[in-house]
Specification:
Length: 276
């Protein structure tokens, strides 16, 4: 019993350590994106533009990656040294030496015997009606496989699709809400200097930015765990253009991701059972 309790305690400690592992993200925008991710002692740079392009348009990103790989292969082939004339002649001589001629000689008696006694293969007579019945039976035995969406349309129609969409929206909302509440922000700095030369345009742009920025700021400060938050949002009627700067440092733990998955899965299963 003591051994079992010791093993159980060790497993609990290991599981707790795994859940406590967190990934620290650093996102900086200053006339260009700079992104980094750090897990324990491993730190890697991430190209945010490529990641966003892959999430928005995966087909285009895949084509671009394939084209780049083809260009790299072509560059390698061009860099390869061409074969000299002596090497080509040696390869040709080796190929000629490796060639062997095999002649299948048969005695004249065997050939005469085959000519006098040709081999005939009897094929059984087939009845087209029987074959048609067999094909129809096979088709009846193998029903068409329907994907989950086709099954919902067949069983519940449009109502089933609407219930599924509603369930997915509630699941996504639960996942995002849980992620936002559990996200830990170490530092967040936002700088927006609105310029452009025309006073009316600057005023309109500044008003529209304030209209969506300050509610978002209130949501971040009220719903998230923030250690340091600072911002600078001002209009500049002399500046020829606008300036934007962002610095974000935050972390996501394995335990938070597990919590997001469990809560989202619970909401989806409960709604799925209710709708059935």
């Amino acid at each position: 019993m003591k051994v079992f309790l010791i093993i159980l305690a060790v497993l609990v400690v290991i599981f707790a350590l795994i859940l406590s592992i967190s990934a620290e993200f650093t996102i900086i925008f200053d006339n260009g994106w700079t992104t980094k991710i750090k897990v324990l002692f491993i730190e890697r740079d991430i190209e945010l533009t490529k990641l966003l392009s892959f999430l928005v348009a995966p087909d285009i990103a895949g084509r671009e990656a394939a084209e780049k790989s083809k260009e790299k292969k072509k560059g390698k082939k061009k860099n390869e040294e061409p074969l000299t004339d002596a090497a080509v002649e040696e390869a040709a001589q080796e190929a000629d030496n490796d060639k062997t001629i095999i002649i299948d000689e048969q005695p004249a008696e065997a050939a005469d015997f085959k000519a006098e006694n040709p081999v005939t293969v009897e094929t059984p007579e087939t009845n087209p009606e029987i074959e048609a019945e067999k094909k129809a039976g096979k088709k009846a035995e193998k029903p068409e496989k329907l994907n989950p969406i086709q099954k919902i349309i067949k069983e519940d129609g449009v109502v089933g699709i609407m219930l599924l969409i509603s369930n997915l929206l509630q699941t996504v909302n639960t996942a995002i809400t849980t992620l936002i509440k559990g996200l830990h922000i170490y530092s967040l700095y936002v700088k927006m200097i609105i310029g452009g030369g025309d006073a009316a345009t600057i005023g309109e742009k500044y008003g529209s930015i304030c209209g969506w920025y300050y509610p978002l700021k209130g949501l971040i400060l009220n719903q998230m765990k923030v250690d340091n938050y600072d911002d600078l949002i001002i209009p500049d009627f002399i500046a020829p253009r606008s300036e934007y700067e962002l610095q974000f440092i935050g972390s996501i733990s394995v335990g938070l991701l597990v919590k997001v998955g469990l809560k989202a899965g619970k909401v989806f299963l409960v709604n799925f059972i209710k709708n059935r």
